[in-house]
Amino acid sequence: MLIIILVLLSIIFFTFIYIASNFLTEKYKRLEDDIIKDNFAIILLGSGLVKIDGKVLLNNRAYSRVLEACRIYFLAKQCGIHYKIIASGGDIHNYGISEAEAYSEIMLSLGVDSQDIILEKKSLNTFGNAKFTKEITKELAFDKYLLVTSSLHMKRAERIFTNMGIKIIPAISDTPSKDPIVVTHETLGIVRSYFYNYS
């Protein structure tokens, strides 16, 4: 009987993961080259840092986000369009360096102009990303922002940024996955987003 219950629970769990992952990612695809327009900018969302042997490094999801932001930046440059990148993410783990600063170092090493990088170093979660980025965008005059984050995170990020009044265009940085931990986290995050104060 116990085995049957465990099997049924497993089926329910993996069915939930499958349905939830499709719900989170089905409307998003890689940014098409022809979306590059004048007077846009890029918002790059943090995805955490890790410390290995005393060194603070980007995790895999973070690398994909940084690389996608750089791809869009250089694509715009080839079209004669000048983009700014707002890197958003604080020092969540108290490593002594914010996500925004760590991502900036990688972008600089890849050739992004330092004057084109704007750092948002206060946020500790997606709501904070939107809240503190909004303060920055008030001083800017861009029409829309290309929001760069991972596919599973995009639905929640898009909802929060839109409710904050920031006009965004989704720009996913990876192919959809079905990581059960991430899927569960993002699904619960969307539920929480309905209770935020966006004023």
What would you say this structure looks like, in words?
There is one protein chain. The protein has a single domain (about 30-195), classed as Rossmann fold (3-Layer(aba) Sandwich). The protein is built from six helices and seven strands. The chain has helices at about 1-25, 60-80, 100-110, 125-135, 150-165, 180-195; strands spanning about 40-45, 50, 55-60, 85-90, 115-120, 145-150, 170. Strand 6 (about 145-150), helix 5 (about 150-165) and strand 7 form a beta-alpha-beta unit. Helix 5 runs parallel beside helix 6 (about 180-195). It comes from Francisella frigiditurris. This is DUF218 domain-containing protein. One of its GO terms (cellular component) is plasma membrane.
* Rounded radius of gyration (Å): 18 Å
CATH architecture: 3-Layer(aba) Sandwich
Q: Please tell me the total number of domains.
A: 1
CATH class: Alpha Beta
Tally of alpha and pi helices: 6
How much β-strand is present in the residues? 15-25%
CATH topology: Rossmann fold
Helix/strand/pairing class, anyone?
alpha/beta
CATH superfamily: HUPs
N- to C-terminal distance: 52 Å
* Lateral strand order in the biggest sheet: 5-4-1-6-7
Major sheet details: 5 strands, parallel
For this structure, the quaternary state is: single chain
Order of helices and strands: HEEEHEHEHEHEH
Mean pLDDT: 88
- Total strands: the figure is 7
Unreliable stretches (pLDDT < 50, length at least 5) are none
Task: Choose one word for the global shape.
Answer: globular
* Helix content bin: 40-55%
Set out the fold topology.
Elements: H1 2-25, E1 40-45, E2 49-52, E3 55-58, H2 60-78, E4 85-88, H3 99-109, E5 117-120, H4 126-137, E6 144-149, H5 151-163, E7 168-172, H6 180-193
Parallel strand pairs: 1-4, 1-6, 4-5, 6-7
Antiparallel strand pairs: 2-3
Helix pairs in contact: 1-6, 4-5, 5-6
Keywords: Membrane, Transmembrane, Transmembrane helix
Protein name: DUF218 domain-containing protein
Domain DUF218: 41-187
